[in-house]
Amino acid sequence: MNISQLFALAPIITIAVAAVAVMLSIAIRRNFILSCGIAAVGIIVSLLSLGIASRESPVRATLLILVDAYALFYMTLLLSTGLAVLGFCYEYFKDREGENEELPLLLLTALLGGSVLVCSSHFATFFIGLEILSISLFVLIGYPLNQARPLEAAVKYLVLSGVSSAFLLMGMALIYAQCGELYFSGIGGYITSRQDMNAMVLSGIILIVAGLGFKLSLVPFHLWTPDVYEGAPAPVTAFIATVSKGSVFALLFRYFISSYSYDYTPLLTVFSVIAGLSILGGNLLALLQNNVKRLLAYSSIAHMGYLLVAVIAGGSISSVLVVESVSFYLLAYSITTIGAFGVVSVLSTPQTEADDIAFYRGLFWRRPWLAATFTLMLLSLAGIPLTAGFIGKFYIFTSAADGRLWGLLFAIIVGSGLGLFYYLRIIVIMSMNVEATAIKSGKPGQEWISTATLAVLTMLLVWFGIYPSPLVNVIQSVAYAME
Q1: 3-state helix, strand, coil in the chain (%, to 5)
Q2: Is residue 212 domain-resident?
């Protein structure tokens, strides 16, 4: 390994070292503040090391890992999101019973898995990164051992995630048996060199699509999502919805481009059906919810469908516009989702999770700052102007229109209309002046880290909605680097 490869791997190595440091600190002395502090420093140092890695990119750090502008952008997004979640986790768990020092360790290992995923160019790192991420999530979801719902959610995720991993492994095995390749680019070369798709390769691709469909909670692989979102602690739910799904989607998109999957029309047809069903199904099911976490779960299904539309459009439009659309939308989605679940986390108490919609009745009159923040996050998810979500939704519309995906464009329009209804419903409930019927939440003024994190997220949300040019320029440089 030369010095350029070492520098390229610096962010991943830093996260791994930080996880070991937290583990050693727990062995020496149990202190939740110390564990969170070491984890936060590790994430910040890893973010700083991305600047060093960017000077060397693109670098094939090992035979299995490619560190390029695309990987660095998504590592920045994942690590920043993980830092925000860590802040919410600290204030969510600090007053709860039990030994919570391992929580930052699990967040770091999950971030390590996500970072490996976005750098993957080979099935081996694809699977290793995914399993490091998934195994960490099992424990994070069921971390409150004295509560039934988190444990139930963890068991459901464990069983179904194990099944999806089996699908992925079988799919990889079938493709390798026929192609003799595990590199994404090698598989792409095999596919483009053949006039017709071999049945074994086709079966392998279908199994991989099913496995990734579970990880992204796309219809019809979505059934676990509302139960897991509802049962998991609010900050962990935010982590699943952003870091987990973001890293898997970044991997899916790289695989699509590297393996020349756009040359295989039936695969695009299958993805089109999945995207349409996810958009309509997610939004329709969200209409029926009175639980905020379940509502946001079904909403996330629809948002993954929107993102899939942009990926499908890559078969007809330039890859630069597709990378731009997917990357901006994922960033806007991450900001808004972290902010929304951050509000849920702040309102929760050690005794009660603030997931019932009754918690939010009259919130504008009780805690106006939180209500205003939650309103902006919901408006961004709905794609209302002057928010980052609007710019992201505009990119998706543009990609679908340029790709002449008229059926999916109609689904986006219908889905966006349905989404606007249930997002506005929560905002109306928060504005009702009926404090007597509201369920009381935690005392204000005790969550300064969460408040600061929400303030930063809100500023980014509005800034990227009003003046997105600097971010767009960065994303465009990433897109051109991938060509």
Answers
A1: 80, 0, 20
A2: no
